[in-house]
Amino acid sequence: MREEILLNQQNPQQLERLYRGNKPGFKAAFNALYPELPGNLLADGWYQRLNFSREESTWGTPAERTFVVAASLFAILVAKLPQLLSIDEEFFYSRNVGFIVFPALIAYFAWKNGASATTRMLAFGFAALSAVFINMLPKDNSSDTLILSCIHLPLLLWAVLGYIFRGGTWRDGESWLAFVRYNGELLVMAALLVISGGLTSALTINLFGLIGMDIQHFYSQYIVISGLAALPVVATFITRVQPTLVNRVPPVIARIFSPIALAMLVVYLSATLFAGKNPYHDREFLVLFNGLLVGVMALIFFSVAETHQSGSNRFQLILLFLLSAVTLVVNSIALSAVLFRIAEWGITPNRAAILGANVLMLAHLFYIGLKLFGALNRKSDLTTVGASLALFLPIYSIWAAVVTFVFPFIFGFK
């Protein structure tokens, strides 16, 4: 390799071929030869290229690592409160699961993004009041309004996290897209950590079992719960300090699952017609229908954010437009089914909550469809599609607040 480099020291193309053919060998031979090539500008350029290294820490600053450890310990402490204070686990976790996850993340981004004192007070004040409210609701596991409040409160805390992530603003469409992308990267990293942790846990439990020690109960009560509580903060930290680990995965997921979701929706709607199932008289089917709708809506948001990040792709735009159109049909069927059930059997907390959510999703899908159609016709760009998230996500948050805080009083805690 040394002789080949010497022979081609003035031939950039041949040096590039040698480098690509054996990168480690080329680097070792070139570094040994470099002192013998003084004043060679081409050699100077290659030396800088081969030996460039980043000086900054790739795993955050000591202060950041300390903050992540403290936030993780706080999340673990909240998760272990039922054991520490002898609180009924079903009562605690059903009402407070959001407070295990989101306060630590809110604190992390408030510190990391330098949120103002006013913004921090608003965020943590809202979280504290929400914790008091949800835990003061009457203990009735059959109460629909209690269940709805427990479901919608984590969505509100997620919205507060978005508010902190974007520096205390609701209107910036670009930062909304960045927040959606962060959620996608967080899910990818969390899934990888869960898989790794699951394999490690299975190996550990079985190894101790081989020597006659049953640690499964202890391990699940302390190690597993602590790991799950700290998972969101740790996964967030990794995505922030090592963005190249995951930032290429979400666009691939969006490109793969968008056509799959489109095909699945078309086939599912067709199969529903042939099977004779309908959401008008089958309550469980309506619930499944709405769950499918929420999942596809989330995929559309995620795909819009990733398409905006990676640049306009006409095929991807066509795919998203068709997906939004088919989802609009699904939403229309679900909405008509809810209205039919209200007309036939009256209003209930569940029907009212689903009605409001379906109306919002219908309007949002229609708006996104119009913007995607404009982008396809080059009358607008993807920025306007992303702006729709900034317009509607705060409205979803308001509706979640109504369901969480107002419905229990409107329906008499039933």
Automatic annotation (TrEMBL):
Keywords: Membrane, Transmembrane, Transmembrane helix
Annotated transmembrane regions: 92-111, 117-134, 146-166, 186-210, 222-241, 253-274, 286-305, 317-340, 352-370, 390-413
Record flagged with keyword Disulfide bond: no
The keyword Transmembrane is assigned to this record: yes
Source species, domain of life: Bacteria
Name of the featured protein: DUF4153 domain-containing protein
Organism name: Dyadobacter beijingensis
